[in-house]
Specification:
By secondary structure, this protein is of the alpha/beta class. Helix content is 29%, strand content 25%. The structure holds ligand LLP.
Length: 488
């Protein structure tokens, strides 16, 4: 028997109750009790989101009578036993739902729009196939990401190639494969691409990546729309205009449009509006001078997601509304043709669909200071807390109904004091062998993972309708030795 997030009010933690009181969770009469997918109509008094943390798990998240966290119909404690930990678990239904939501929210406001997924957030062949089936495009930033797309015959016309220093080999690979768009970042690339496209007898469609000089107020490592950025042609210096001038004169390039990406994650929808305003004023000036206007415009990615209970994010609809409305207003006012709109969500497609599972080992008390709960992963599979100060929630997947009476710091196993996954977080009393879940781990964890301390990378499973399939097996010590030429 399993309970959806809504029926556990009476048995859940003091921590949850405190949150409910301080955050004003209301009491509601809730008529539905879910028993392994079957819905009974037993009326039950409950609080909305009575395990508040489930809000940041995939929508399928529920807890069974043993107190085990269930995702996509699979018991996460069983998954941990079967596949080992650390383990990354993705809910396939949530991935598909996010793709469909993006497509629907943008296309109903701006029919000529295309959603392309930013692969850097997380990519493998299973996900690429799913994205292909859902009709999304793909944004790739390397020959490696491109190779994954090629390997599953992703439609090349829906692939966009980004990056501030694409190599000759990478550009050749893209041209060989007749990729849809190359997003040109700088003058070196403009010249090189024109030369290579000529060699391949191709007139390549390109977008210009421009920096409109808009601060997205993200972490400084992930802000990209300001003048002092390694990405793109600045608008304010005249370099963006010069790039268009040169491309118009280049025989093997077809300038199709403009692109910006302002940063990630962006919590303010107004930032996109400011960027659009700046870019389309620039486009109107270019049209007057050069007679060229963009047929396509990409507003990049950067859409925020909710990682922690105290920091909600705008909805997909909120972002779509701001971008589509501003684009239509600006092009209307300036007398430009409404271009095709492209958006490049990465994080918002995969982040909440994925969770990380760890096994608790040592629990270390420093009296009067803090209690460290040490897990078998850490900065090797999730560098984000160490790199950006990123914050997460944590839930004991093996006893999700237990009272969260403790406040602990969850430490990884890597040899750095900075290897802390979650600081000062409420948790049920931890013991060795417990399985801990960290939600919203689907984006930028696995792709930024490393073999630091020669620790093998985790396995990844996709879950759906109570079934799990391994989409990436756990690395072994042999894998670590495979590329090491021991004879040298
Ligand atoms: N388009 C371009 C050109 C990008 O550079 C990025 C992300 C995206 C789209 C997708 O952004 P998203 O929708 O995923 O926010 N490692 C950092 C995030 C770096 C983002 C890099 N570019 C993190 O873990 O937060």
């Amino acid at each position: 028997m399993s309970f959806r997030r809504s029926v556990l009010f009476l048995c859940h933690s003091e921590g949850a109750l405190a949150t409910e009181e301080s955050g004003g969770w209301g009491l509601h009469l809730f008529p539905l009790l879910t028993i392994h997918g079957l819905t009974s109509t037993i009326p039950i008094m409950k609080a909305l989101n009575s395990i508040p943390k489930l809000v940041v798990f995939p929508p399928s998240a529920e807890v069974d009578r043993q107190g085990h966290l269930i995702i996509g119909g699979c018991d996460t404690v069983d998954l941990a036993r079967r596949y080992g930990t650390p383990l990354y678990v993705f809910d396939e239904a949530a991935l598909r739902q996010n793709c469909q939501e993006f497509k629907a929210e943008f296309s109903r406001r701006y029919p000529d729009s295309q959603v392309i997924y930013a692969s850097k957030a997380f990519l493998n062949r299973a996900l690429a196939r799913l994205l292909k089936e859902e009709g999304l495009g793909l944004d790739v930033v390397s020959g490696g990401e491109l190779s994954i797309a090629v390997s599953i015959l992703f439609p090349p016309s829906r692939v966009y190639f980004h990056g501030n220093n694409k190599t000759r080999d990478e550009l050749e690979l893209a041209l060989d494969w007749h990729i849809g768009r190359i997003v040109v970042d700088n003058f070196h690339e403009l010249g090189l691409l024109n030369e290579l496209a000529g060699k391949h007898s191709i007139k390549q469609d390109i977008l210009f990546r421009v920096t409109p000089g808009v601060d997205a107020h993200t972490h400084q490592h992930t802000t990209t729309g300001i003048l002092d950025s390694k990405f793109g042609f600045p608008v304010s210096t005249g370099q963006a205009e010069e790039a268009i001038r040169r491309a118009l004169a280049a025989p093997n390039l077809n300038p199709a449009g403009l692109h910006f990406h302002l940063g990630s994650p962006i919590h303010e929808t107004g930032v996109y509006e400011m960027g659009i305003e700046a870019v389309f004023k620039f486009a109107a000036a270019v049209k007057k001078k050069l007679g060229w206007e963009p047929h396509e415009f990409s507003a990049g990615g950067g859409f925020a997601v909710q990682y922690t209970l105290d920091k909600p994010a705008p909805s997909t609809g909120d972002y779509a509304e701001a971008i589509c409305r501003r684009l239509a207003d600006m092009t209307g006012t300036l007398g430009l043709k409404p271009p095709r709109l492209v958006v490049e969500p990465g994080r918002s497609i995969v982040a909440r669909a994925g969770i990380a599972l760890y096994t608790v080992g040592a629990v270390k008390d420093i009296p009067g200071v803090r209690r460290y709960v040490c897990v078998d992963g850490g900065m090797g599979d999730n560098i984000r807390p160490a790199l950006y100060g990123a914050r997460y929630e944590a839930l004991m997947a093996s006893k999700a109904l237990a009272m969260e009476t403790d406040t602990v710091t969850i430490a990884g196993k890597y040899c750095e004091s900075g290897d802390i996954l979650v600081r000062d977080t409420p948790l049920a009393m931890a013991e060795a062998g417990d399985i801990l879940a960290i939600p919203v781990s689907g984006a930028y964890c696995i792709p930024m993972s490393s073999n630091y301390n020669s620790i093998p990378r985790p396995a990844i499973v996709f879950v759906k309708d109570g079934k799990a399939r391994v989409v990436r097996r756990r690395e072994t010590y042999d894998d670590l030795l495979r590329l090491d030429n021991g004879k040298a």
